[in-house]
């Protein structure tokens, strides 16, 4: 976009005692890079788990408490994109195995590159990472759908001070502070977006002055996303989308301008009408504005932003809410005891080697920090998650969303009747049920109004368990000894400035 000073080099040293939300899937993928060949050949490998433990050790050394967030149910609107990615991984895997066979087991640069393209994160890998996290007293949280949406919500709600990720989608979800490219020296690249709590209020200062969260989302969607489904406008990149959104502000206004411009009219998708294209963009925008997330303070499902009365183009959100209503007790899923993709239990038994890797490394109990937060009370809002007959509602009722608060769906949810990923689970093992929280999950949506003051109430951890001197030494040894993931990254500006002094 031609925006200067967007990235700022920060040190975790300046954020001691804070709580951070970590996109665990990004860390797992980074760790898998160093064991890409083993991932393809099926050999046992500890490199990825050592990487994750070493990154957690970095946070521990700076007294920072993490919340590890994992992906939940698959987004139905991304099925085609996810299938395409899966096909590419399978193709790369087959090619990598063939190359390894021809090269008689010797690994060269080309084979390594092909193996990296074939990296697949299995349920077994996720189960192991989750159990290692629990061993270190790290809070594990499975998102209803996208991990990046959940991470953004934790930061927007003031539960977490910052997000750690490699995914740019966090910005579209309105995450106020993201740390990218976190390294073992505790340095990271920070992007801060000072969006107002209301999606239609424009920023009054900073890099996004004059742009609201809704405008920013529209800009991202216009430039291209995983939800395009063949509806991308040829030649529309982030710079042009930024220019258009600054000038016209809304998607309908931009579509009207493109239709009248002959050069742009030729670039519009031909398999859909202009109205269908406009509705598609508006629907996708709602994913980033109102996606379904989980509030760990109240054990309830909610939206990133409350849905205002009269909101239109909610087809995708209606579908997400309807699907989540028919799944298992989400309190069990969110705790990481059930695989949301197939309904099977996620079980991993800690080994002596795992205990040795995590010995002496324990984080503070997050529950006391979270429960200490205050939430501003507001009038109840009508929410799609509370509706009992979504499929029977006429289109007008969805488009003109609003009205009385409907009854909770908690009574409708039955753990013995799971619908998810074409696989049902009946009577799950008692061992799985016994590990869940004793607090009953409340499926009512919490009425909330986020204010600027409410985002600073519980993002610090005053009762952090300070490590002893010997534990600090052990943490530092682990950080230094753990195999580094080799990723080509540009030199940070702050590093270059220090080198020039």
TrEMBL record:
A Pfam entry, by short name: XPG_N
Biological-process GO terms, alphabetical: DNA repair
Cofactor(s) needed for function: Mg(2+)
Enzyme Commission numbers on file: 3.1.-.-
Coiled-coil annotated spans: none
Keyword annotations from UniProtKB, A to Z: DNA damage, DNA excision, DNA repair, DNA-binding, Endonuclease, Excision nuclease, Exonuclease, Hydrolase, Magnesium, Metal-binding, Mitochondrion, Nuclease, Nucleus, Phosphoprotein
Cofactor note (record): Binds 2 magnesium ions per subunit. They probably participate in the reaction catalyzed by the enzyme. May bind an additional third magnesium ion after substrate binding.
TM spans (from-to): none
Protein family according to the UniProt entry: Belongs to the XPG/RAD2 endonuclease family. EXO1 subfamily.
Full protein name: Exonuclease 1
Species in which this protein is naturally found: Babesia gibsoni
């Amino acid at each position: 976009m031609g925006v200067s000073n967007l990235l700022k080099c920060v040190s975790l040293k300046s954020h001691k005692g804070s709580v951070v939300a970590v996109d665990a899937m990004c860390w797992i993928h980074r760790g898998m890079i160093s064991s890409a060949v083993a991932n393809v050949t099926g050999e046992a490998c500890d490199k990825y788990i050592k990487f994750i433990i070493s990154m957690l050790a970095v946070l521990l050394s700076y007294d920072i408490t993490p919340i590890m967030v994992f992906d939940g149910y698959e987004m139905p609107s991304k099925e085609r994109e996810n299938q395409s990615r899966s096909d590419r991984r399978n193709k790369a895997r087959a090619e990598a195995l063939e190359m390894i066979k021809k090269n008689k087991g010797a690994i060269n640069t080309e084979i390594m590159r092909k193996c990296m393209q074939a990296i697949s994160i299995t349920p077994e890998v996720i189960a192991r990472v989750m159990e290692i996290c629990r061993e270190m007293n790290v809070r594990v949280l499975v998102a209803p759908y996208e991990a990046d949406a959940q991470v953004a919500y934790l930061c927007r709600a003031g539960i977490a001070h910052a997000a750690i990720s490699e995914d740019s989608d966090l910005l579209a979800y309105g995450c106020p502070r993201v740390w990218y490219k976190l390294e073992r020296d505790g340095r990271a690249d920070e992007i801060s977006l000072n969006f107002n709590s209301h999606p239609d209020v424009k920023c009054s200062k900073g890099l996004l002055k004059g742009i609201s969260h809704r405008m920013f989302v529209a800009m991202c969607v216009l430039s291209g996303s995983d939800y395009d489904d063949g509806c991308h406008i040829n030649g529309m990149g982030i710079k042009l989308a930024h220019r258009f959104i600054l000038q016209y502000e809304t998607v309908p206004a931009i579509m009207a301008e493109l239709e009248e411009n002959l050069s742009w009219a030729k670039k519009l998708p031909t398999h859909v009408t202009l109205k269908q294209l406009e509705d598609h963009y508006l629907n996708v925008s709602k994913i980033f504005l109102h996606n379904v997330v989980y509030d760990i303070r109240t054990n309830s499902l909610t939206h990133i932003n409350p849905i205002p009365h009269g909101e239109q183009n909610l087809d995708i959100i209606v579908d997400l809410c309807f699907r989540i209503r028919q799944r298992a007790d989400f309190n069990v899923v969110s705790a990481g005891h059930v695989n949301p993709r197939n309904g099977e239990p996620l079980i991993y038994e800690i080994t002596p080697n795992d205990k040795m890797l995590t010995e002496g490394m324990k984080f503070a109990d997050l529950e006391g920090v979270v429960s200490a937060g205050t939430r501003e009370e507001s009038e109840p809002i009508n929410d799609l998650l509370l509706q009992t007959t979504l499929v029977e509602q006429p289109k007008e009722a969805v488009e003109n969303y609003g009205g009385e608060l409907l009854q909770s769906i908690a009574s409708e949810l039955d753990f013995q009747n799971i619908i998810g990923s074409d696989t049902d689970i009946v009577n799950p093992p008692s061992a799985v049920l016994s590990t869940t929280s004793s607090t009953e999950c409340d499926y009512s949506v919490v009425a909330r109004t986020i204010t600027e003051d409410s985002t600073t109430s519980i993002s610090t951890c005053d009762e952090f368990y300070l490590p002893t001197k010997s534990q600090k030494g052990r943490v530092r040894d682990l950080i230094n000894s753990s195999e580094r993931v080799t990723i080509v990254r540009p030199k940070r500006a702050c590093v270059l400035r220090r080198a020039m002094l």
